[in-house]
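Quick entry between incubations.
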Amino acid sequence: MNENLTESFTRGDGRRADELRPVRFQNHIAPHATGSTLIEWGQTRVICGVTVEDAVPRWMKDQNVPGGWITAEYSMLPYSTLQRKPRDISKGKLDGRSQEIQRLIGRSIRAAVDLQKIGPRTLWIDCDVLQADGGTRTAAITGSYVALRFAIGKLLTEGKLADNPLLNPVAAVSVGIVNGQALLDLCYAEDAYAEVDLNVVMTSTGEFIELQGSGEEATFTEEQLAKMIGLAKTGLRQLFERQQMSLKASGGTEWVGRGLQTPG
Ligand code: UDP
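Done. Structure below.
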């Protein structure tokens, strides 16, 4: 791999190899959700809504597991792709990709919360893709964290939680290798040609939550992996900043004084 390419290489949309697509959040987009945002990440747009249910899953009751639970559902709206994608309900079952993605979202957001402190509740994270152009799972995770913050803030404000259950912020980004070049934040046109595709989920304190990486009819070296992780960290630093800016602008940090850990 040509190391200099990271600095000189330009992409179909004119971005540098280490440049994110523009990211913004339209918060409180779904007033009946406890917390919500529409994350717009280049041409990828995902609605993330958090709803609180005052019950825990049966397995928690059966096994006497204390605290609460967080679970996620992910779906692509039929018109989110260039060719209409039929709803899962019309096929009678959830497709494997959606199942894999929603479990990843659930694991990622659970890492942001001390489940014991949310009490006997389930937080439902619903992610609906309005427009897909690559990176829908990383957008869903990054947006869900913002929606989660509004939901937790509401529970704290209403006095339903005694202690702030939030741990460190969580975000995710994709990286990959296209034509031998390590690239940050692949759009669909790049993803379709990627030799290697890696989704990185991290906390703002630099700890990994999950790495989902695979060579698509290709292999990758340890050196390439290190390069991709480096790019992911560059992107994630910016994503954590955008999350915080957006939360501040929308009243998502008003209860900081009650022990919220802000990212370093
Ligand atoms: N895609 C699509 N239809 C599908 C699945 C994926 O058009 O049924 C497109 C969409 O743009 C998506 C991209 O392929 O964002 C990459 O999909 P992948 O499974 O890698 O997940 P993502 O990158 O969205 O997390």
